[in-house]
Structure prediction request, 289 residues.
Amino acid sequence: MQTNKPLVLVTGKNGQLGRELADLAPLYADQFTFAFFGRDELDISSEQQLTKVFDELKPAFVVNCGAYTAVDKAESEQDKALAINAEGVGIMAKLSKEHHAKFIHISTDYVFNGQGTKPYEADDETDPVNYYGATKLAGEKLALQNNDESIIIRTSWVYSQYGNNFVKTMIRLMKERPEIRVVCDQVGSPTYAKDLAEAILNIIAGNNAIKGGIYHFSNAGVISWFDFAVAIKELKQLNSTVSPIPTTAFPTPAKRPAYSVMSKDKIVADFGIALKDWKTSLQECLEKL
Prediction:
């Protein structure tokens, strides 16, 4: 690919974040070229495949949106989750360093145990309560070990017009059923994938000299899953009754953190990222659906 513009390599092109990045990429066409890869084209746990892509494309930036995200399934598919969420991340970080590319990796609030009472800072103690969270934490560690300038962005409760997510599931269930029951004792902050995509592109387009580290990003505001469902119902003007239930009434193979609120002060200060209110972003997404 012959071009004088820096190339941005994006993995996980078929996921929510990957697709939102692809939608926004044309806005940055005068600054960058983009190469998007899905799991069919690039196995991010394969050092051989990754090395070949890096050698051919010589990226200036690498954004890893690829991940094993089936939280409950990760409990039984541990090897697969670890290969994608940890080992592959370590390889990408190493190759990024060798090619002098800035590596941006997306992680999760699930690296925390959810027993906090105030928003988690980037350097707070980690303690995942499920295997998915453990693999994502292992990926963060390998990224920084292999490339100390890696930028890790932890996010939470991601949704968009694409893929499977809470928002789309709620709309479907509310149309199908007169009543739905939603967990009310897990709190956090939703993230509209388009807003996260914009933040990533702002970081890339901004100051390339900024050092790496761990950052948090989500929309502004703190709600429960129940609050989220009620807002979806009201904005979509659906008739289903939404009833609150405790986590104990909805057992899942993987444990979920009860408190997933993260402080975004660092990403705002270092990169000048503006945070949108969760409800404003939810409305924007619902208009696209």
Notes: The two ends are 35 Å apart (CA to CA). Residues 161 and 289 are 6 Å apart (CA to CA). Residues 78-98 form the longest helix (21 residues). The mean pLDDT is 96.
